[in-house]
């Protein structure tokens, strides 16, 4: 999956001989049928790149994978998913004809043989053209939504159509479902058909512009993602765009986008960016349409490559773009929503940590709590290299904020890391140092098994009071390192959802330096080379950090995070390093805090509503079949809208009841989980205070 706006990581220069061959005897390629005149064909340069990438990944990737028939089968499966994730273009007979390549891709990778890649794609390309003709015929007249039939929107576990008749019926229902979605937004039949026609004409133009470079990138990514989800090949055009994004100022909506089958998905939001500040986007949202200005036509980007989607979404500062979104939390029957957003340069100051003070009433006492929100782990490396005295960094800012909160005499501090996708490892270590005297923070292991312990060596402590860390499913990487260290030192209570589980380190390799004789550019490879471990020896990979107190979450580990990726590196454990555990948190205290939370979960209106919403959502998510009968579908939509409105209304009322004690500021935010974290921290302060009183008496 290609990604943009990701942090540029140091380039690892590796020496490989591009002309070297495997010591084993070359295996002759499978004979393919004679290519048609308009078939896409590989270049000699791509064949050379295939060999170099194969050597690079098999020798230097953390996983130390060996080429084999089993790996070949995984690459074959990945490639089919890259081409036809929804299983709507290819026929079962096509897939059967590809079986001859299934166990030979490993040999082809070594020998620079791209026969399988291009043979399979050229068949797929012909099916694309056939579907385009079918769509034109089907959209020549409006749909009737009077028949009581249904369509299953989840095609992941479905089989490829057995024949053309079955495929045509599948496409008829798929197009009918898309048209009904548009009609339920209030559009007339003529407008629906016009929009549908425009959408598929645009898709056809995109398909006709697919080049050999695109096919090669797709194939090499199928190989890279067989090793782990973060290993990718960037073709020259993609690599150039990636480098441009890294060197230019960020103007646009401030989102990291990636391909997800035929869709463009938001995989992260840039703190301080328009999308982040609008609070209308969530990681995992799919962008299915883009319109320029307030009146421009909505252009479908389903089937677009991510770089082409980026070109439409980005634009000059101050201009308007409208996005048609299918939210990550959308149910099968939900219609897409449209969001208007003004492009602008990312405001870096809004990426920085900030604070607020909330009051929590618990057990007859009002607790004054400081909340420090950390959107990401940032550091001005240029200023640090220049040895400037005041380097902008997460640690510097959080220290300043906590010093300010101490002057305000807060009873405790909550660090909010929800949605923090990581950033600087140094900052994760230094931030931990604000709360412990000194000691190890994280262990980093390379592919050779060598382990480095990275530590905070500063004995000073900025804050030694009651501490809670709030995390969610999208707290990742550096966030997980920090939260894990706080948990291992028993320095604070961890509250929220299980974190993302990304415990790996990637590096970027410029293939142009490895193939200097090639006249054409050859691209780049991003690959995994190291793995993070907690100081107790447990990996943060796959499992992430499990909070001491788990709050309900709509984002399950099966669908979101590292564990949702089939090729994710596994969780494992190495030896613990030596560290001095504090006495702030113990199992008895954690158990009592959990019990009090569970009592509130049964009685507090806000918490009960959130927990029930999670249950209802997960139950509704299981139903992926939608009605194509307009009256029935409209009723499903109206019922869902009424339920949502009722929840919103009850939420506004509940915030004024004694069961949700908080300050006006906390009420205004309606942040149930922040308020609950504040209660948990207040409980902890109260319990620890009683222990101290008993000891003094």
TrEMBL record:
| GO terms for biological process, alphabetical | proteolysis; signal transduction
Q: Which InterPro entries match?
A: ClpP/crotonase-like_dom_sf, PDZ, PDZ_sf, Peptidase_S41A, Tail-specific_protease, Tail_Prtase_C, TSP_N
GO molecular function ontology, one term from the record:
endopeptidase activity
Q: Where is the composition biased (Polar residues)?
A: 652-663
Q: Which GO terms describe its cellular component?
A: outer membrane-bounded periplasmic space
Please give the residue ranges the record annotates as the region Disordered.
Answer: 639-670
Its domain of life reads Bacteria
**Keyword set, alphabetical order:** Hydrolase, Protease, Serine protease
- Stored Pfam families: DUF3340 (PF11818), PDZ (PF00595), Peptidase_S41 (PF03572), TSP_NTD (PF17804)
Provide the PDZ domain boundaries. 243-328
The family line of this record is: Belongs to the peptidase S41A family.
Q: Can you say what this protein is called? A: Carboxy terminal-processing peptidase
Annotated organism of origin: Fibrella aquatilis
């Amino acid at each position: 999956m290609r990604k943009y706006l990701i942090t540029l990581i140091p380039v690892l220069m590796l020496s490989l001989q591009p002309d070297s061959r495997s010591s084993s005897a070359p295996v002759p390629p499978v004979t393919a049928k004679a290519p048609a005149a308009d078939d896409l064909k590989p270049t000699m340069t791509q064949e050379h790149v295939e060999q170099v990438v194969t050597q690079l990944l098999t020798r230097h990737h953390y996983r130390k994978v060996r080429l084999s028939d089993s790996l070949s089968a995984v690459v074959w499966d990945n490639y089919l998913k890259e081409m036809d994730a929804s299983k709507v273009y290819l026929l079962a007979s096509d897939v059967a004809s590809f079986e001859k390549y299934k166990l030979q891709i490993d040999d082809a990778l070594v020998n620079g043989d791209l026969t399988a890649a291009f043979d399979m794609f050229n068949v797929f390309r012909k099916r694309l053209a056939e579907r385009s003709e079918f769509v034109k015929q089907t959209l020549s007249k409006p749909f009737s939504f009077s028949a009581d039939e249904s369509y299953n929107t989840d095609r992941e576990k479905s089989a490829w159509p057995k024949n053309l008749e079955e495929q045509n019926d599948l496409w008829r229902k798929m197009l009918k479902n898309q048209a009904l979605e548009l009609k339920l937004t209030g559009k007339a039949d003529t407008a629906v058909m016009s929009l549908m026609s425009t959408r598929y004409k645009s898709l056809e133009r995109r398909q006709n512009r697919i080049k050999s470079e695109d096919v090669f990138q797709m194939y090499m990514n199928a190989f890279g993602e067989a090793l782990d989800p973060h290993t990718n090949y960037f073709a020259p055009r993609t690599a150039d765009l990636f480098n441009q994004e890294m060197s230019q100022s960020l103007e646009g909506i401030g989102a990291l986008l990636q391909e997800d089958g035929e869709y463009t998905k938001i995989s992260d939001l840039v703190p301080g960016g328009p999308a982040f500040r609008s609070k209308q986007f969530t990681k995992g949202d799919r962008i299915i349409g883009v319109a320029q200005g307030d009146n421009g036509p909505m252009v479908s980007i389903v089937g677009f490559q991510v770089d082409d989607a980026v070109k439409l979404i980005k634009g000059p500062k101050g201009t308007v773009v409208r996005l048609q979104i299918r939210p990550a939390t959308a149910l099968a029957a939900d219609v897409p929503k449209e969001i208007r957003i003004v492009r602008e340069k990312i405001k870096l100051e809004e990426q920085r940590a900030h604070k607020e003070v909330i009051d929590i009433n618990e057990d007859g006492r009002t607790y004054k709590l400081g909340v420090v929100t950390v959107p990401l782990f940032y550091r001005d490396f240029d200023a640090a290299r220049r040895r400037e005295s005041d380097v902008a960094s997460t640690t510097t800012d959080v220290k300043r904020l906590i010093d300010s909160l101490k002057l305000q005499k807060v009873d405790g501090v909550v660090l909010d890391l929800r949605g923090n996708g990581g950033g600087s490892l140094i900052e994760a270590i230094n931030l931990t140092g604000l709360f412990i005297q000194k000691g190890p923070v994280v262990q980093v292991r390379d592919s050779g098994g060598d382990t480095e312990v990275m530590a905070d060596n500063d004995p000073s402590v900025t804050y030694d009071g009651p501490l809670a860390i709030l995390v969610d499913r999208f707290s990742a990487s550096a966030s997980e390192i920090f939260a894990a260290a706080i948990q291992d030192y028993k320095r604070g209570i961890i509250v929220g959802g299980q974190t993302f589980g990304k415990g790996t380190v990637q590096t970027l390799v410029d293939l142009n330096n490895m193939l200097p004789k090639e006249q054409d550019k050859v691209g780049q490879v991003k690959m995994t080379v190291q793995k993070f471990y907690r100081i107790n020896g447990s990996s943060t990979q796959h499992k992430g950090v499990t909070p001491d107190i788990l709050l309900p979450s709509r984002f399950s580990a099966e669908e979101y995070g590292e564990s949702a990726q089939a090729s994710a590196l596994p969780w494992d454990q190495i030896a613990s390093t030596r560290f001095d555990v504090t006495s702030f948190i113990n199992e008895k205290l954690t158990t009592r805090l959990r019990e009090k939370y569970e009592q509130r979960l049964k009685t507090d209106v806000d918490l009960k509503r959130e927990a029930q919403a999670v249950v209802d959502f997960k139950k509704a998510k299981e139903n992926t079949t939608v009605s194509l009968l307009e009256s029935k579908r409209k009723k499903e939509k109206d019922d869902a809208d009424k339920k949502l409105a009722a929840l919103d209304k009850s939420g506004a009322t509940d915030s004024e009841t004694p069961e949700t004690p908080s300050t006006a500021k906390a009420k205004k935010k309606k942040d149930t989980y922040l308020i609950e974290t504040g209660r948990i921290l207040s409980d902890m302060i109260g319990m620890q205070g009683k222990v101290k009183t008993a000891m003094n008496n």
